Amino acid sequence: MSIKGMKKALFLIMCLVLVAGCTSNPGSKEPEQQSLRVMFWDENYFFQQYGDLFTMQHPNIEIEVVSTNNIYRDMGPDGDYDKAFKDFIDKEQPDVLMVSIDQMETYISEGKIRELDTLIERDKYSIDTIYPALIELLKERGDNKIYGLTPNFYGSAILYNADLFAKHGVELPRDGMSWYDIIELAKQFPTEGDEKTRIYGFDNNWGINMTQLASMISSSEGIEQIDTNSMKLTLNTESWKKIYQTALDAMKSNVFYNPGEDGFRGGSMEEYYQSQPFLMGRAAMTTGDTYVLRNLKEAADALKDYKPFEIGIVAGPASSTDPDKSRNIGISEVFAISANSPNADAAWEFIKFVNGDQFAKIKSRSLNNGLLSRMGYTDEYNGISLEAYYKLKPLPTDYSGMRKIPNGFYEKFQPLLDTELKAVEDNTKSLDEALAKIEAEGQVALDQALKEQEEKKKEEEAQGGSSEGSADDSAGTADSSEGSDGAEGSAENSANEG
C-alpha cells in the first residue's frame, strides 16, 4: 500500500474511533421510559395547561390522566362526595393526587401522601420565590411540613378609577380595607343622573343585590349561616344582623350598581363591555381577580370611542378583624405524591416542573389561569402592577362541613330567605322579624332534610345487607345440597359394600 493510501486508511480508522467513542459513552445512556398517572378534572385541559409543556421537557415520562369527573358520575345526585373521592383514588391509584387544601390535610393524617421536604432538600429545589403566604398555609396544614405544591392560586383585590376619586375629592382606597370600609367609601360618590350616564360608587360586573352583598360580606368575615357541628342555623344573631343591615343600607344608598332585570342579557361583546359601568369609567370601584384587567384591555381594544382612565389596585377585601389577611385568597388545586406510588421520582419531576421558574415564565404571558404562585414573572399586566394580589395572607376557610348539608334543604331554604329579605327591602317587615322567621322555619327544613337523608342512608344499607344476605343464603343452600348429595352417595356406597 502506498504512503498516501496508508494515510487515508489511518484517517478513516481515527474517525471511526471518535464516532464510536461519542456514541458508546456509558454516561449518555438514554433515560428509562416511565409512566405517570395524574389526577385532574379534564384530560384535554390538563395537557393544554400542564401536560404538553412537561412532556416536551421529559419525553421519557408518559402521562395518563385519570379524570375526577368520573367521581360525580359514579356518585349520583345524593351521594357522599368524600367517600366517592376516596374510592376513586383507591380504584385508580394515581401517582400524582390533585386535592383541595382540606383534603390534603385529611390525607396527611391518614398517611396517604408523601412529604416533599426531603425531596426539596435533596434536589436543592428553591421555594423562596413561591408566594410565601401559600407556603405558610401549606405548612400550617402539614404540621410544619410541605406535602404538596400549587402552581396557581386565586385572589381578589380592590380596583378603582383614580380619575373619579380625584374628580369628586374622595380619599383613595388603601390596602387592607374590609367590605364595611369599601361600602362607606362608595357612599361618598354622587347618585344623580340617568341610568346611562350617572356614576356608581361600586360595580361588580353584573350588578349586585342585597342578598349577594350580604353573602360577600359574610364570606369575607368568615361567618356561616349554619353551624355544621351542631347543625343549627345561626342567622338570628348580632353578626348576621350587622351584615344584613349594612347590605340593606348600602342598597338604599343607591351607590351600588344593580340593573335588576334590565341588565345585560346577551348580545355582542361591544354591547357587553358597554353594559359594565366600571369598564366604561362610570364606577369608582370594583373587586375581582385579574379577569377585570383583561376585560379592561379587551374593551379598550374593541370599542372605537373608548375613553381610558387611570387604574389603581389595593389589597382587599380583607377581614375587618385581621386587615392583613383575607378569605378571598385560596388554592383550588394542590398536587401531591401518593404515599404508595411506584413512580414517586417521576411524580416529583412533574410537581417540580409545574411549580418551577420555566413553567412560570411561559405561563406569565397570559393570565388565563389565575395568579402564578411562583413570583417574579407576573409583576404587571398591561402596564398595571399586580403587587396588591400578593400582599395579604390567606385566612383558613374550611367548607368541608357544608357537604354534610343535604341538597334538599336549600330547595326549601332559599325561597324562604329570598321572600323574607324582599319584605325587609320593601319595608313591610323589620329585619329582626325576618331573621327570626328565617332561622325558625329554616331549622325545621334542615332537621327534616337531615332526617330524610338518614332514613335514605339506612334504607340503602338495609338493601345492601339484604343483597349480601341473599347471596349468603344462596351459597348456604348450595353447600347444603352438596352435603346432601354427599350423604346419599355414602349411603349408596354402604349398601353396595354390604
In words, what does this structure look like?
With 498 residues, the chain is α/β, with parallel strands linked by helices. Helices cover 49% and strands 11% of the residues. It has helices at 3-23, 43-57, 69-75, 81-92, 101-109, 117-122, 132-141, 162-167, 179-186, 210-221, 238-252, 269-274, 291-302, 344-354, 357-363, 407-425, 431-497, and strands at residues 34-40, 61-67, 96-99, 152-153, 157-161, 200-202, 226-227, 232-233, 283-288, 311-315, 325-326, 334-337, 371-372, 380-381, 384-385, 393-394. The strands form 7 sheets. Strands 6-9-5-10 form a 4-stranded mixed β-sheet. Residues 1-20 form the signal peptide. Keywords: Signal, Transport.
Please write out the topology:
Layout: H1 3-23, E1 34-40, H2 43-57, E2 61-67, H3 69-75, H4 81-92, E3 96-99, H5 101-109, H6 117-122, H7 132-141, E4 152-153, E5 157-161, H8 162-167, H9 179-186, E6 200-202, H10 210-221, E7 226-227, E8 232-233, H11 238-252, H12 269-274, E9 283-288, H13 291-302, E10 311-315, E11 325-326, E12 334-337, H14 344-354, H15 357-363, E13 371-372, E14 380-381, E15 384-385, E16 393-394, H16 407-425, H17 431-497
Parallel strand pairs: 1-2, 6-9, 11-16
Antiparallel strand pairs: 3-12, 4-13, 5-9, 5-10, 7-8, 14-15
Helix pairs in contact: 3-4, 10-11, 16-17
